Amino acid sequence: MFNFLKFQKLYFAISTIVIGFGLYSIVTWGYHYSIDFVGGSNIEYRSTKPLKSDLVEKIVKTEKGIINDISIVDTITIIQVQPLDEKQELKIRTSLEAQAKVKIELLRFETVGPTLGKETMNKTIIASILALMGILIYMSFAFKGLNFALAAILAMVHDFLVVIGSYSLLSHYFGAQLDTLFVTAVLTTMSFSVHDTIVIFDKIREYINTEGRGNIDYYANRALTETMVRSLNNSMTIVFMLLSLILLGGSMIKFFVLTLLIGTITGTYSSPFIATSILVWLEKRKNR
Amino acid sequence: MKQLKLFIIVALMAIIIWIDLPENFQIRFQIGKFKIDTKVNPLTIDWQIFNTNIKYAFRTHLGLDLQGGSHLLFETDTSKIKPEDLNDALASVRDIIEKRVNYFGVSEPVIQNIKAGNKYRISVDLPGISDVNTAITLIGRTAMLGFFEEGTDSAKIASSSPIFLRLTKDTGLTGKDVKKATVEFDSQSGKPQVGLSFTNLGAKLFGEITQRNIGKAVGIFIDQIPISTPTVQTAIMDGSAVITGNFTVNEAKKLAITINSGALPLPIKLIEQRNIGPTLGASEVKKSIFAGAIGLAMVLFFMIVYYKKLGIIASMALLIYGLLSLAIFRLIPVVLTLSGVAGFILSIGMAVDSNILIFERIKEEQRKGQKFNIAIRVGFGRAIDAIKDANITTLTVAFILFNPLNWEFLPQFGMVRGFALTLAIGVGTSLFTGVVITKRLINLFYKNTQS
């Protein structure tokens, strides 16, 4: 048996650093919101000669446009950007004409509203909170006490913070956009997190049931030792799947899969190290 | 008895595989004299049972990103609205259209407000639906529900004139006071009708209206057209009413949808309708499916290397999981988008979890010195508790996110619900294959070792 709990301070230090960086990033840089949240502008040009996409990209960027997509088919150029006004569009057009030495005709300029309204987001948050309560109630019954449920939920909040924080970093450094896929990835992470924690808690519950309320430290370490292989193996299968999707899959879902990967890793990490540590701490407080 | 059981299992497997067959898959080969040149297609049901026609084609329903669909563009008439109310009105038109489309049974639509110059438009993208015209009329309907009673000036109108001409006084009760409209069937004639249940305020109003009109007619109007003019028998205080009329089931359904979603605050008209291609290239999808296949192969390889014989059993259970989930996706049907496909691929990774849990427990029992066949039984029993609790919590999450009671304050449509549905199917199916099927397979394969 390995004394996992000896390194509690280390676990909390790692988590604090990761979450700290993430929260710092959220506060200072925030996110790039995708068209799902803020809408965008679609511009369609016809030029006398085909345009080069890196030139279009450069010019749109100098006008402070955040590009979602540029597609150029022969002389037709379609630019999708975050909302622009008419003046910005005109500037882009004139500098394109000057630099590419072509004549450009504006075929279409329209601004599209968001598909994900504030209302939908608020409702999703309410639903998530209700789901948390549901988990709290069910676990309190299944594990005959509030401590198991609380520890599992705190670990889940931990994973939630890790995921939203690291996504803000991804957003800042690699231009990942906050979109509907991200919301799905966060929800997946949260359900995976509790799922994983319960497996360890089940072991601890079993010891308490068969051997009586004894030394919680000993039970926790024993449970961790016995479930470690299972936890790693299970996560391994998920990581295999996600890695192959990242390395070989399409580029559109890269950040989505990466978020799931981060979620899986933090979910696997938090169950033995964060959730169990919190449980031990709560149980000891109760017994005192 | 045993043979019957085996027969049922084989038959079920055959049906599932039949449902899962690829669509329009060309098979062409030759063995000696036999030439086979045929197109394979999944199961299609077209039965005539009594007088009802049951028709169902098991096909994969793909989302806009993978398959494309119909693009509808509506223009709003903003001439009669104050500029300061414009944004609210536009947002609400969009939400109402989304509700209608969802009630109509189209999942994963994309609905957006578009501003072009000073024109305000709403684009509605529907993933491959066959009945576009019905969708268009449904989206564009205004459906103002109104209740009218006999006006005080009715004395001027001859009492012999048709009853709806005498119903001139608006009671102030409208579709806004209706909590829910549902399609019902009359218990005597069996004809479809629309049942209304009012909000608290609506119930109070309706109670008062019926109270003062006992013995008189009250008219139910939709878009100023009288639909039914029942005579009030007693005061109705429980806040429910029915609209009868010569409806077909479909008409009743559409009426209920439009009442439920409320009236559009701005008039809209269709200005463009065309088919759109998938937003994601075929190569993008192919890549992801290829990646999924490689990932699956790695999972299977890992399981077999690590758990040997038990790993082979887990792999078989996993394959059955894949086939079964696909069949359920086609049965419901679930609209698959690229994120849905990614979620499904992820769920394959998660589906082996119950197996790993069980196998680790079995190994643990073996380490304690139990014989293999006893270890299997004990291990199963021990693992069940953890599997049960872990999966029930996940199902709880899925249940709340799916919002089956359609509560106002929870997501009522869109991607969160889609996610919850796929999650629930994944968990439910993996529970079945991971526990029940695995147990059967172990019994089957280890029969000889039992002593």
User: Which CATH class of the largest domain in chain A?
Assistant: Mainly Alpha
Biggest chain pair interface: A-B, 69 and 70 residues
Q: Which sheet architecture does the biggest sheet of chain A show?
A: 4 strands, antiparallel
CATH topology of the largest domain in chain A: Multidrug efflux transporter AcrB transmembrane fold
Rounded radius of gyration of chain B (Å): 29 Å
**Distance, first to last CA of chain A:** 26 Å
Family (chain B): Belongs to the SecD/SecF family. SecD subfamily.
GO molecular function, one term (chain B): protein-transporting ATPase activity
Organism (chain B): Candidatus Roizmanbacteria bacterium CG2_30_33_16
Function (chain B): Part of the Sec protein translocase complex. Interacts with the SecYEG preprotein conducting channel. SecDF uses the proton motive force (PMF) to complete protein translocation after the ATP-dependent function of SecA.
Secondary-structure topology with pairs:
The complex is a heterodimer of chains A (288) and B (451).
Chain A: H1 8-28, E1 32-33, H2 35-38, E2 40-47, H3 53-62, E3 67-73, E4 76-81, H4 86-100, E5 104-112, H5 118-142, H6 146-174, E6 177-178, H7 180-211, H8 216-248, H9 254-287
Parallel strand pairs in A: 1-6
Antiparallel strand pairs in A: 2-4, 2-5, 3-4
Helix pairs in contact in A: 1-6, 3-4, 5-6, 6-7, 6-9, 7-8, 7-9, 8-9
Chain B: H1 2-20, E1 25-31, E2 34-40, E3 44-49, E4 52-57, E5 61-62, H2 64-67, E6 69-76, H3 86-103, E7 110-116, E8 119-127, H4 132-140, E9 145-149, H5 163-166, E10 169-174, E11 178-185, E12 192-198, H6 200-212, E13 218-222, E14 225-228, E15 240-243, H7 249-261, E16 268-276, H8 282-331, E17 335-336, H9 338-367, H10 372-402, H11 415-445
Helix pairs in contact in B: 1-8, 3-7, 8-9, 8-11, 9-10, 9-11, 10-11
